[in-house]
Amino acid sequence: MSRRRGGAKPKQVAKAAAGKDHHTQFLEALKLYEGKQYKKSIKLLDTLMKKHVTPDCLALKGLDSYFLGEKTEAADFVKQAISKIEGTKASAICCHVLGIYMRSVKSYADSIKWFQASLDNGSTNKQIYRDLATLQSQIGDFKAALASRKKYWESFVGYRANWTALAIAQDINGERQQAINTLSQFEKLAEGKISEAEMYEHNECLIYKNDIMYRNAGDNGEKLEKVLHHLDTIEPKVFDKFGLLERKASIFMKLGKVKEASLVYRTLIKRNPDNFKYYKLLEVSLGVTTNNKLRKVLYEKLATFYPRCEAPKFIPLTFIHDETELSKKLSEYILPQLKRGVPATFSNVKPLYLKRRNIIPKLVEKIVIDYLSEQDSKKQPIPYIWSCYYLSQHYLNLRDYQKAHEYVEKAIGHTPTMVEFYLLKARILKHTGELDKAAAILEEGRNLDLQDRFINCKSVKYYLRANQVDKAVEVASLFTKNDDSVNGVKDLHLVEASWFISEQAEAYHRMHISAQKKLEELRAETTDSEDENKSSEIKELEWSMEKYEGLSLKRFHAISKFYKQFEDDQLDFHSYCMRKGTPRAYMEMLAWGNKLYTQPMYVRAMNGAAKIYFKMYDNSLKRKQDSDGSSKFAEGDKKKAKKEASSLTKRKNEDRKKAIAYPESEDKDVFGDELLNTKEPLKIFDSNFYADYNKQVQDYERNNILDFEFQYRNGKLALCLGALSKYEKKNGQKSGVFGAMAIILILATRESSTCDLIAKKVATKGLEADYSFLPLNEVENDSFDWLNYFKENFHSKDLNALLLLKQTSLFDEDKVKELILDTISQDEPLLQNYVLQYVL
User: Fold this and answer.
1) I want to staple 408 with a disulfide (CB 3.0 to 4.6 A). Which of 7, 392, 478, 625 is the partner?
2) Could you read off the pLDDT of 312-337 as tens digits, one per residue?
3) How many CB atoms lie within 10 A of CB 419?
4) Which pTM value belongs to this model?
5) pLDDT band with cut points at 50, 70 and 90 for residue 16
6) Of 115, 113, 110, whose CA–CA distance to 128 is shortest?
7) What ranges do the domains of the chain cover?
């Protein structure tokens, strides 16, 4: 019955359409789209297009198809529609529809073009200005966004959101006084009309207006007084009392009213006595930052006022120089915590280890050892175990792994049910390079509390560091849904668990290197081609090597995908924050968005992907340069590998189930074959990682080594020179990395180099102008020992510099290896093992 009813309606639609003109029918199809009746809309459009195919019908059909999930067909219809339009000369409705489609597919610049065309072609829909402003803000065109906000505000003056949006746009464009006037004008209009429900929004706009006034005032005393007066006026209406008091204190400091500022800081300390920042600012306001005697008196008084707070007890430990007094203060700070059994005691003291390395560790060691010797493990179990725990962390910090291990074993021996002790023991084993043992110990600790998500995540992380990916996924899957997959990998991608995905990517990369080494060794050993066991093992290793490298790239790309999604998610907030009246949160979001691609996790993924893509590029160059037929052999070997891989179909299908991260409709390239087979690895790396990073990163946080390596492979020697210059300004001319980059750049200017001639000349002139002390006249001298020059003139025991020299393959590989081994000889075993296994 339901089918008959569903089938009857299209006939009625078609019958009704017969007696209407084309435009009216199109508007009816548009209404069906707006009512989310996409199939009915397409049915009516098909009827219309039998008579006459117009850009309007094609565009709307494309939009309907897109929302039905038919994205390929939608793109085709939209393409046909645009091909029938001369420039942007189409109906206002058609342009509006195209703008909506482009926004849906995240082509924001094209969306702006079509929305603007809709207005230019006579659209009376003023809501388009709001959409325009949102999209212009998303792409960072705030000047155009201001014009759009103003037009929309003029059309809908009665809504507070439009006043707030206009003020924010004016503020972003540097028109601070106009922004203040806009907010003030609305305050006058709304005076006495603010309801209880609107009070929070009103308070946010008031404090935002004060923010603008404060920034606009700068150091002008008269303007600052006005800001202070405004702050006093709005104080009863403002909910953010901390923000208000902090602003007040800041103004007093700028005005030189240090006494008033100190009173405000004392109020802030009273409200939040655990905030270290307020104590430091109080010192500044009292003018005692350079007088340790007065500082000591100050903190003694504050300690009596706030006896249970950390800051007044901790801060004096950073400046007291007398060892006897310092030892007494340390005892008063540390021992009560050990007596109470505070697990974070070492974490609290650790900053002192970093700042005062020469004196703090030896004093603390004596204090805690003396205290431990007084404790009876049976009568005082809590002080005993936590003193052992502290000393184990202490010796780990000092890299005395044997003693660290002894003390943690004492703690475990006394109380074998304490999870924290297993965490610490695993950390010690990790630093000694025993990653498998560390993972096993942490798993033992995890089994003590199977409901603890933190220890579960730690266990997963240690398994991944030990390259035990399957076990890591198994443990992680205990806290995931696993509804439509054999493990939790898909769910972990869905919830964007970046820590897991980046660790897994790095583990896969290490496993790829290990498989590659084993394969090379096995091929070197195998002489009999008919040895079936060896042949089978070789096939397995070839598949593993390719699989691990592809999966590593896929995971790194997943991180990039998350951050692009974060960027796209900002789109809704350009209108949401205006409606909800949260201008300060909106400004914070914009500031965050401007640093999105410089976040540590993104940079980590980019660096990981760079290693693989740079290696792929270097390998492709080697294949091109081989003139002895080895290139043909490699190609033949590749075909053979593909043929042999067909016998591993069952294994591949099993691996596929374990590795799948997205539904097959979204991603069919589970093992990253398409990424591995790209002919332009540098271009893919640039578009997916480097370009976004390069737009946002500031010079002080820029990875100049990565810049240099990327531009060197692109043959852009002028940009290599720029990276060299920036690195030299930060680290000096004696730096090992500077020396390595300089030598590589000099050798790139040789006549035999494949780089562009003009690029060579630009680089040579730049080196001659800025770094004339370098032996540039030896560039064509084949007998000149560049490696020896590096050792004699730069800090040669710089691992990053030596790895850079190794990657270029311009120097004697054995000599570079020897230098690397000598450099890491004094480092911890963890780093030594990593370099030996995965670098050399």
Assistant:
1) 392
2) 999 999 999 989 999 999 999 999 99
3) 18
4) 0.88
5) very low
6) 115
7) 1-123, 126-239, 249-308, 497-623+639-693, 698-840
